[in-house]
Amino acid sequence: MKLDRVAVIGGGPGGLYAARLLKLSNPHADIAVYEQSSPDTTFGFGVGLASRTQRNLRQADAASLDAIVARAYSHEMSMQVGESIARLAHGDLLAIARTSLLSVLQEQARDAGVRLEFGERREPADLDVDLVIASDGINSATRTADGRFGADIATGSGLYLWCGTDFALPSAIFVPVTTEHGTFVAHAYPYAPDRSTFLIETDVDTWTRAGFDATTAATDPTDTDEASLRYLEKAFADTLHNHGLIGNRTRWMKFRTVQCRNWSLGNVVLLGDAAHTAHYSIGSGTKLAMEDAIALDAALAAAETVGDALAEYERVRRPAVEHLQQIAVRSEQWWESFPQRMDLPVEQLMVAYMTRAGKVGLERFLESAPDVAWKGIASYGQVAADSEAPIDASRWILARPLEHGDRSFCDRFAPPALREDPSTTVVSVDVESAWNEKATAVVDEARASSTIWLTGSDERDHVLTRLDVAERMMCSTSALVVVEIPTECVPDAVAGLVSARTHLVFVGS
Ligand SMILES: Cc1cc2nc3c(=O)[nH]c(=O)nc-3n(C[C@H](O)[C@H](O)[C@H](O)COP(=O)(O)OP(=O)(O)OC[C@H]3O[C@@H](n4cnc5c(N)ncnc54)[C@H](O)[C@@H]3O)c2cc1C
Hints:
By secondary structure, the protein is α/β, with parallel strands linked by helices. The chain folds into 3 domains: 5-40 and 97-153 and 257-333, FAD/NAD(P)-binding domain (3-Layer(bba) Sandwich); 159-246, D-Amino Acid Oxidase, Chain A, domain 2 (2-Layer Sandwich), CATH 3.30.9.20; 360-507, no CATH class. Strands 3-5-4-10-11-12-9-13 form an 8-stranded mixed β-sheet. A hairpin with a 2-residue loop joins strand 17 and strand 18. Helix 1 (13-25) packs parallel to helix 4 (98-112), helix 2 (51-60) runs parallel beside helix 10 and helix 10 (285-302) packs antiparallel against helix 11. The longest helix is centred in the middle third of the chain and has 31 residues, at 306-336. Flavin-adenine dinucleotide (FAD) binds next to helix 1, strand 2, strand 3, strand 9 and helix 10. Residues 9-15, 34-37, 47-48, 121-123, 135-138, 141, 160, 162, 199, 272-273, 280, 283-287, 289 line the site of flavin-adenine dinucleotide (FAD). InterPro entries: FAD-bd, FAD/NAD-bd_sf, PheA/TfdB_FAD_monoxygenase. GO terms for molecular function: monooxygenase activity.
């Protein structure tokens, strides 16, 4: 299809990348990006780019990826609880300052022949073009102005604050700190030789006890909540090596997951955060926006009309985006409930972290980081970390004996007779989330039982939620917990055993 004029609203990573790809595919078209801010104004600090994202970007446009990688900073990952640290060597993790990413993408768009108009706010009605790409971010006015996009916005229960520090941490680190007010968890990673992103999360009760409801109310939306930064500098002094925290319009926020029933109306299409968001703990917002751009460019190249192209773009992208959003919601809930796991040995915590959303299985983690994964498994199996790892780890995990109170089990398979025991409460779990009110009621009801047997649907998503409910029960009761699973979910149950999501499993069908 021949495109003559395209307008892109919003010069974030999604809009700039879409503009470049479209200009490369349609050299004669007039393609303009309208960005309300100046070229160097941005929020936030670094963003991470995982290895698979790099592969996809390379395939679409090697030159721009090379330019991004040249400005990026690679790092490894670790998790720390108290004095214990688990390290994960992982050569493919890259992070880049958001300002650098935007400046590279601006340069790349300009080199391709895109017009960049800064300080220009636009809405679709202003634009007489063949196609309007609304990449105007999470607060998209385009999406908000028209109810036919069918936006649904879910707000998370925890709070986060995105700040930075003026030195490069030795690796990405997840570190919880407990103060007199409660637990704060930092996700931090270096993105330049002299900078690290420092993202800190907490729950509402801790936030209120620390007085951050008041500091948030007192901070103008364009300012930084300095009082919170000073408090957090003290709390994280060890990790920060006494460096300070830097703000950039930094304030406590609740993450919003955006979903839309329709991604396009007429010749206007939503792209990136305007159409969908995914919790930052899976580091995928930028990736999703840029991969949207790749799919949109391909759909426009192949279709006869703009309408057909936009339908095809949505058909191709929606399943991938929704799949990632599902993973992101699990990850968000895992982090929001993080303090309940702080008694778990850090090696097992690393396994719990890697397998938290059902995206990475234990086998894959073992392949990519055998030393760290084995340490977690050894800790669960109560054998020395330097003992030889079994060839079939899953079988070994399931074969571990269990002592629970005065009861002993020779392996982790629940005997069928246990289900019929008068002391066992069988609970059919049918909840959308392990953390909603209905799930809390399920946990509370079973609290007095000495054995809790969780059953329910065989669908994988339900099984994962059941394991999360089981974990809540393990953390808040002294009951023996059994989760019923179908055969195809044995890998999830194996990861769940090591991660203290259940004591025993029953493989039903
Ligand atoms: C705390 C936090 C941490 C994150 N960490 C990561 C990470 O590690 N990795 C990752 O991949 N992603 C991360 N993200 C997500 C990432 O920042 C976003 O997903 C990404 O920026 C989306 O790109 P976008 O182009 O869709 O929108 P944006 O980057 O938000 O860009 C939208 C642009 O549109 C402009 N604009 C808005 N309205 C108009 C208008 N009417 N006219 C003109 N211009 C307009 C805005 O000024 C803005 O520049 C994180 C997000 C948060 C909140």
